Amino acid sequence: MAKTAIDRSKMQVSDEIAIQITGMNKWYGSFHVLRDINMTVNKGERIVICGPSGSGKSTLIRCINRLEEHQQGQIIVDGTELTSDLKNIDKVRSEVGMVFQHFNLFPHLTILENCTLAPIWVRKTPKAEAEETAMHFLRKVKIPEQAHKYPGQLSGGQQQRVAIARSLCMKPRIMLFDEPTSALDPEMIKEVLDTMISLAEEGMTMLCVTHEMGFAQAVANRVIFMDQGQIVEQNEPREFFNNPQSDRTKLFLSQILGH
Amino acid sequence: MSDTNFVRTEMLPPVAPPVSQRGLVRWLRENLFSGPLNTILSLLAVAALYYLIKASLPWWLNGVWTASSLRECRDIVAANAGPDATGACWAVIRERWHQFLFGFYLPELWWRPMLCFALLFVALAPVLYSDSRRNVALLIGVVTALLALCLLLLDTVVLHLVVSVGVMLALLAVAWTAPRKLLWVTLLYPFFAVWLLWGGSVWGPITTLLGVGVMAIAYRLVAPSLGVVMGSSIGFVAACLWWLFAQGPLLAAVAPALPFDLQPVTSDKFGGFLLAFVIGVSSISISLPLGILLALGRRSDMLLIKTLSVGFIEFVRGVPLITMLFTASLLLQYFLPPRTNFDLILRVVILVTLFSAAYNAEVVRGGLAALPRGQYEAADALGLDYWQAQRLIIMPQALKISIPGIVSTFIGLFKDTTLVSFVGLNDPLKGITQIVRADINWKGIYWEPYIFVGAIFFLACFGMSRYSMYLEQKLKTDHR
Fold it and tell me: How would residue B228 be classed by pLDDT, with cut points 50, 70 and 90?
């Protein structure tokens, strides 16, 4: 990844806690996917979660906005505990933005409608105001000219940037990224990563499941390595990449950085 | 220079395909004469068409339009085209068309079903063409002109003619100035149509409509605190209570005080395409929302709702429609309180609706299953609640996928309305045709009534099919 100068002036971690996960376990049927996860995320942190496929990293961040239900332990997001209470779930979901591997834009709506839908129906924002906000964020991800097209007319990288803008329109406090560049052509990965970097520069709290180690080194303040449903190692990026402690981490890093 | 090294210095421009790959020649070669077998089949098909047309053409060309009996028809054909010639006897349609269209509806009241039919298009227009004011106005304009023409040809009383055309023109004006207001016509149409067709006091539909108002008020009161499902259920119960207990007394009190009546028409006077359309249109419009709810119920996580939906769908789909119709005409009486006067057409409509709702539910479920999980997750992740996600994200896409299946169900349902002849209603195909053929003048006539009825059914079904293709094209946004 081409190194661009990153403005770190606003990338500050505060003492305030954004997400607190304690003793969390999750099973799919009898399969134990997440095992005793304990983790605290402060406001302004940029965390990259990596690990081999099937290690539970996606499941972990999907638990944070309850796309997946956890069976044991506690998840508190921005002061709200996630239980089966639908009101809490909707509250958390409207505060937490999520970007998916396959974009999941709504194909029957235009780009602009994709971005204004949730603000209008969930936040009850007036349409004109929602459209203004949407255009603001579409300019930010550098595709305002596509506002009246449909998702199917855009390239993968553009769609993913729309997906980011769509999440931002809800003015979330936390952003979750679930392998946002894994479904993209190499030429488009950079445009999405640039968008994510600019988001980090503004001090957004971000949790990002990704294999883009360049991004992790440039932006993250913490890298978490998961295997077999548990957190194996976490460290600040320089130490994590230069001086991994566990054998499992060393093996993983040698495999993805090997060539 | 090694073989593996290659550098393109110039990009190639696109060139037109060779002549043999273009135009009519290519089409014929590809589609009709692509091989010996296909060539033989093409020639056989042409030959079959030739003999079919050769055999039936004289029958169509020698058609007789003016005669008072089948014998007279045959005499005219024999006189015109020789003793052995065949010829169609369309005179029967000319004489009895009104029975095919209206059944035994009184001639002086024909303007009512006709106005009703015209208003059907006004009610449908804003739904069918939600984004094109021009199409809506054009449709209503054409229907108004046709209505005026038909009413004139039928020597309708001037008052009725003026009222009907006046109403249509007023609605045309609304369609042009404020097309979205037409949706109110769509909502009120069922009540108005029932009043127009069956007659009686105008307070009947108004007090029924008040029940809907009661439902809305109850929903408004309950929904904010107890949620959408409880709100709808309590609203529905409140409306039923209104219809059962409050409407009757209110009607008895108001109707004599402010009498504004249309001459009542009983259900046994309904027949022909009037009956087919009453049953078809009402069942179609109720069965789709019901089918959607059943499909959602079947996919629900709530065990009770899921079980009930699955049970209903499987039961109804497992039973022939005729069984349901017999239930409507015979069995239902046993379960209702004695002396309940529960209209046969209404009973048939209810059961036909339930029948096609089960089919629609499965079609819609197919559409729901075809949606990627990511759509649900994205809706959830944005904080939309269940009903918002269904209404804004899931249903628009699932229904779009299901359009061909839904329209097939609708077409099937519309044609199945002819089965009501089994419970003694005069459907156009069997009921009316039998009556016409029982007439001593037309005894022995065979093809003509069936062709006439079939042609009208074909027009209606073909129209639905073409509209669904237009809709699919319009909603196509994936561009893939």
Answer: confident
